[in-house]
Amino acid sequence: xxxxxxxxxxxxxxxxxxxxxxxxxxxxxxxxxxxxxxxxxxxxxxxxxxxxxxxxxxxxxxxxxxxxxxxxxxxxxxxxxxxxxxxxxxxxxxxxxxxxxxxxxxxxxxxxxxxxxxxxxxxxxxxxxxxxxxxxxxxxxxxxxxxxxxxxxxxxxxxxxxxxxxxxxxxxxxxxxxxxxxxxxxxxxxxxxxxxxxxxxxxxxxxxxxxxxxxxxxxxxxxxxxxxxxxxxxxxxxxxxxxxxxxxxxxxxxxxxxxxxxxxxxxxxxxxxxxxxxxxxxxxxxxxxxxxxxxxxxxxxxxxxxxxxxxxxxxxxxxxxxxxxxxxxxx
Length: 331
Description:
Elements lengths: L1 H14 L3 E5 L8 H4 L3 H7 L6 E4 L16 H18 L4 E7 L14 H11 L3 E5 L26 E4 L1 H4 L6 E4 L1 H8 L13 H16 L2 H22 L3 E7 L2 E6 L10 H13 L5 E3 L5 E4 L7 H25 L1
C-alpha cells in the first residue's frame, strides 16, 4: 500500500495532473488514497471520486471483447483512449494509468499481448504515466520473466513499477522503481519522503537474501515447469468436469473459472465457495475471487513442486466428482 501510495504521489507531482485511470475491479491497497483508485474496494464503501476513471478490464474470457475478437488488445486499449478524451473534454488532465501487470482479485486475468504498449501510448500522449503494480506477481512468479509486465513484450517498459510482498517473503518490505527524472520532480518540491522503517538494514538484508534464493534455487524455472504441469493437469480436469469454464495462467499464477453452463458462462459462485471450503478440510488453502467470486485463485509458494501440484489437482478432481454425484442424487 505504501509503495502504491508513493507511486500515486510521484505521478501527480511529476505531471502536475490529478486524474487516474484504473481497471474494473482493480485493487491497489488499503490506504484511503488507494481505496479511491481501487474499484474492488470503493464500490462497496463510497462513491467514485471525480478524478478517478474506470475502464473495462482486458478479460478475453468474460469481458467486453472475448477470445473470438480479432484484436482484443487494440479494442480494450481504445476504451482507455475514449476515457482520456472524456477527461480532456472536462478540462482535466491524466496523471497516470494504474494496472496490476496480471490483475489478481479481478479474477486472475491475463491481458492480451500488446495491450500495455497501446495503453501506454494513449496515456503518454495525454501527458500521463504508466504505473505497473507488480506487488502480487513480480519476482519471477510468472516463470519466463522476472516481471509480469514483460509478458507484454520486451519493448514495453512502465514509467513506475511498484513491488511488495514477494521481495520480503513474508517480511514487510516494499519498493518503488522509476526514472531519475520522475523521482527528481518529486524531490524538487522540497517535501521529503520519510518512512520510519524505510531503509532498515535488516529489511535490506532480507530482501537481498530473497533475491539470492530466487536465483540460486532457479525459482523462475521452477515456476515455469511446475506451473505448466499444473495447467496441463487442470485442463485435463476441464475436459472431465463441465463446471470448469476456463483455465488460465502463467507460471505459478493460475485461475480456474467455474461456470454453471459453458455456453452462457453463468458464474458458479456458490460452487466456488463450496470448493474452497471443501479443500480447506483437505488442508489445502486457496481462495475464490473475481467480481462474481467464481474464480479459484491458485498462487502457491515459489518452491511448489510437481508432487504438490498433482496432489492439489487430485483433490480438486475428487471435490468436483463429489459435487456431481451429489447433484445426480438430488436430481
